[in-house]
UniProtKB/TrEMBL annotation:
Cited PROSITE patterns: AMIDASES
Residues annotated as signal peptide: none
Domain (Amidase): residue spans on this chain: 82-488
Pfam families, A to Z: Amidase
GO MF annotation terms: catalytic activity
Native species: Acidihalobacter aeolianus
Protein name: Amidase
Length: 499
């Protein structure tokens, strides 16, 4: 990707944009001074790229026909066999389509990415294959993962397998459906505002958003580095714990993983220990949102009573700042994703990471196809540019600073309790929105009030089904201390056995 010296006309245009005044003579001088930098950039471009090793042979792939893609859960199907033996031997795994699998197409739900094929496996894919799993396909996800509904994917809406007239949740929509229908035993999901837990809630499965950095994000298309999480989606709690065990730990690339190795636990160790003596706080602010279904709130309160019957110490706790969590997410999510995923061509700058430069080069073409984008992407892009032009990163910085106070408020509550309990989503699976952009955006973001705060504060959170409301799954979310996933699995397993 050779760089050329800017012309004097181009330099003059840049000066206008940056409000720099240079004379004609100055322009010539500055042009000359840039030659050394152009040469340096081109030397860098010629350096052979170092990338993660890719293991395990892979054959072809195919776009599934309608009869094998009933709910539009799959983007492509494939068959990549891992080790002959291992803890996940015999497991079929679906991979969310923002996760790189070498030689298998990836479009991250976006028409602007169609035609891109990664040349590396994400670390999580390598780890699953090394554990004996088999990758059976890429699961559809929402357009650039920017929706909690399942209606924005460029390949068409992903339908809820329990009621196809309802949404499957997003953005890991196809992953949730593939698990719920039994087409695979586990799936990889990504979570920046609730995108593992919201589809888990709508489809009635188990989804874990691990502590930030516990599972490496290397080889996954980012949204914003401070909220990027990847984790397991399964039908059972035990399977979820086993899958997380295969995924966790440092990989040497991901800068999110400062403390990951020191904090890896045996996530299966407490599955049969019951909840006697566990202290569980019912988070008052997690109930009674304007969009809450009172039946969902009641169903989750019944779960709290069940946990008390099983021997847990259950009582109410208040964290008033929880109501501010999704508000704080807005500047971080909007400014962060605009700078990283769009202006930064998927990665942005200023961190040590594995930069998938082939993806960055391919993704840069979004600038010529912006009209194709989903309403959610357009809205966040337009507002991000508006704020950047007038206030720069000021509000992003204010929000990140405020997140520390929010994190401390949860941490204080978690000194009194082992975990917090609330509905995962305030409602069950919603209907598909109308085609107008206002309805499309509302249908994408109305369900993330309880999930998004914990992407900011990095606490682990597990969503699991807890009964039906009017024939659709309700879901309870348990939130724990950082790197205390094993205790969340302990409570979730006891609850699962009792329902």
């Amino acid at each position: 990707m050779a760089l050329t010296l800017p012309t004097l006309v181009e330099l003059d245009e840049i000066c206008d944009k940056l409000r720099i005044s240079l004379s004609s003579e100055d322009l010539i001088a500055y042009q000359g001074m840039m030659q050394g930098y152009v040469d340096a950039y081109n030397t860098v471009d010629a350096i052979p790229g170092k990338k993660p090793e890719t293991y395990y042979p892979r054959g072809g792939w195919h776009r599934p026909a309608a009869e094998e893609n009933k709910f539009n859960e799959w983007y492509v199907r494939c068959a990549i066999d891992g080790e002959a033996d291992g803890p996940l031997k015999g497991w079929d795994i679906a991979v969310k389509d923002n996760v790189m699998v070498a030689g298998i197409p990836m479009m991250n739900g976006a028409s602007t990415m169609e035609g891109y094929t990664p040349n590396v496996d994400a670390t999580v894919v390598t780890r699953l294959l090394k554990s004996g799993a088999r990758v059976v396909g890429k699961a559809n996800c929402e357009y650039f993962c920017l929706s909690g509904g399942s209606h924005t994917c460029a390949n068409g809406p992903v339908r809820n397998p329990i009621n196809p007239e309802r949404m499957a949740g997003g953005s890991s929509s196809g992953s949730a459906v593939a698990v719920a229908t039994g087409e695979c035993r586990g799936a990889l999901g990504g979570d920046q505002g609730g995108s593992i837990r919201m589809p888990a809630s709508f489809c009635g499965i188990v989804g874990m958003k691990p502590t930030f950095g516990l599972v490496p994000y290397t080889g996954i298309m980012p949204i914003e580095i401070t909220v990027d999480h990847v984790g397991p989606m399964t039908r059972t709690v035990a399977d979820n714990a086993k899958m997380l065990k295969a995924l966790a730990g440092k990989d040497g690339f991901d800068p999110r993983q400062v403390y990951a190795d020191e904090q890896v636990q045996d996530y299966e160790a407490l599955l049969d220990k019951g909840v006697a003596g566990l202290r569980i706080g019912i988070l008052q602010e997690g109930f009674g949102w304007a969009e809450s279904d009172p039946k969902v709130d009641a169903r989750v309160m019944a779960v709290a009573r069940k946990l008390a019957e099983l021997g847990a110490e259950v009582s109410q706790v208040s964290v008033p700042l929880h109501k501010l969590g999704s508000t704080l997410w807005a500047p971080v999510g909007i400014q962060g994703l605009y700078a990283t995923m769009l202006v930064g061509d998927g990665y942005g700058i200023s961190r040590e990471d594995y930069y998938a430069t082939d993806l960055m080069k391919f993704h840069a073409r979004w600038r010529d196809q912006a009209d194709e984008m989903s309403a959610t992407t357009k809205l966040l892009m337009l507002f991000g540019e508006y704020v950047n032009a007038r206030h720069g990163s000021y509000h992003y910085g204010k929000a990140i600073n405020a997140v520390k106070t929010l994190r401390a408020a949860y941490d204080e509550a978690l000194t009194q309790f082992d975990m917090l309990l609330m509905p995962t989503t305030p409602m069950t699976a919603t209907e598909f929105p109308a085609d107008d952009d206002v309805s499309q955006v509302k249908g994408a973001f109305e369900m993330l009030a309880n999930t998004s705060p914990f992407d900011l504060t990095h606490h682990p959170a597990i969503a699991m089904p807890c009964g039906d409301v009017d024939g659709l799954p309700a879901s309870v979310m348990l939130v724990g201390r950082h790197f205390d996933e094993a205790r969340l699995y302990q409570a979730a397993a006891a609850l699962e056995a009792s329902l």
